[in-house]
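Input set for joint prediction.
Command: fold jointly, output tokens.
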Amino acid sequence: MAGLLKLQPTRSSPLSELCSALPSLPLRLQEVGRFVAANDYDATTRSMRDLAAEAGADPAAFTRLAKALGYSGWDQLRAALTEARRPSQASPFSGRAKGRRHGPDSDVALINAKLEAEAAGLTRISAASIADAAKALHTARRIWIAGFRSCRSVAELLNYELRLFRPDEVQLVGGSGPEDLDLGAFRAGEAVVVIGFAPYSRASVLSARAAHGAGATLIAIADSPAAPMAEGADHVLLYEAAASPGFFPSLTGAIAIAQPLAAVTFSLGGASARKRLRETEARLAATSQYVAEKG
Amino acid sequence: MAGLLKLQPTRSSPLSELCSALPSLPLRLQEVGRFVAANDYDATTRSMRDLAAEAGADPAAFTRLAKALGYSGWDQLRAALTEARRPSQASPFSGRAKGRRHGPDSDVALINAKLEAEAAGLTRISAASIADAAKALHTARRIWIAGFRSCRSVAELLNYELRLFRPDEVQLVGGSGPEDLDLGAFRAGEAVVVIGFAPYSRASVLSARAAHGAGATLIAIADSPAAPMAEGADHVLLYEAAASPGFFPSLTGAIAIAQPLAAVTFSLGGASARKRLRETEARLAATSQYVAEKG
DNA sequence: TCAACTATGCAACAAATGTTTCATGGCCGG
DNA sequence: CCGGCCATGAAACATTTGTTGCATAGTTGA
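tokens >
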């Protein structure tokens, strides 16, 4: 057996354990170890034999590697890798903003961290889904946009941009007041865009249900596939709203989705959309909504 | 109306397929489907029986769910989820956006390029400036927020978030209509936030001038230090609105500034701000604005 | 009310999984 | 040169996996 227990490895991450132990391993195990380090996502999702085939190694080597690292078997190593990869380690966040007393630059550091996280979140948005949703908007006879509370800002942006080139066919849901949601007005052949994140407002969920019930095309912009407004949606556009503690959820991702959605819908509109946009712009310029731009 | 042939699933993401199909599924399958949607990471890594135990459902339900979605079995559904989650799909950027006339995926490439550019733009935002501006908001007796046209969405978000903990002291400029801009109401000791980018709307420039003239603290959120509303501003918060050709300027950066601005102002507000926020939240919960969140 | 139907849980099934054992082949010290 | 040692690959193992058939409970429509 492996004899002397060389335990007490770096507890930080199974991957770092692997790397540090790598040089002291037999040749073949190094090979396999490097493969695991380079393909850790596949290591967590695919089967041992699968990996072995792709790495050109023996299945048993994986078991042996795990044991050499101090695990009881490949299953346990994989479990460790899986946990290390788990997204949104939501656990120890409650203490976060609390702990440090307001240091001189703690705010600055926090803002920077937040911005960086949001930038990373943007790259995870699915462009293909946005393009698909834009096609649906393009073919819709009429477009409704529903967003409430803080999401209303996103709804209004979308409403504003779409109206630039389809003024007669785009409308905000609940424009007349909180009690009049127009929910009965949805029809098949129309599209309803609902924007929301947890905690989900009642109005947004009702809008989504009504849209689905009416047979309209439902496009949900939400923070989770488990969001109530995503149920029955024909298109689900996901973003990350993960909030810092005590802070409000982030809308950056939602905005970052709404804008290309409008843009692609516009480009699908072709010449006629361009014509409408020019008309709108001309009208705004005529009433001197803009100041002269600097050269 | 709930179409018989409403299939034709969205091929972009297995999770969207799941969401779309959810309402038309049998009760128990919905339950399981929601569980998968809410725990898609576990769905890709753990075993069917494991998930069943945690979801309190029958293992067979997972197989049946997969088949109901058009997959040949759970294995295939899981494979799809796994692929959708695979990191670093960032690779196919080489084909970029330039040359091709509307190819099949030129939109997708364009959206990806845009998102990446915006992510890069976020990291260039000055956190220190935001923190400074937040201090100014904190000490202001009253806060006005001005944003017009597409920038109105940003203004409304800021207005909404600040009002959560300072409801009596925050107000949108021009809430009553385009001709009534409240510009005469600004006073020294108050703060005015003006949001805008090129081309600059007349109303926003007028707001900024009025604020400066009245001796109020002027905070400009703009795309350039040369923006008219930045003239005479006490705080200038810059973001990149660089538009793709033919598209609208981007507001992602402005939103990314507005949110931490509100958040830091909140944290400066200390105990009293927290108290007001709790009150507001309690009121919203009491009028059942929210649906119950999933546990 | 009854029959046809679907949805659901249970249990048995074949296939695939991770592990272990064993035989082989290369390496070093005596 | 040889005997012990370890690394390595192949095959056999028990377990667990995903699946399917069946009986029951629940629902729908005539």
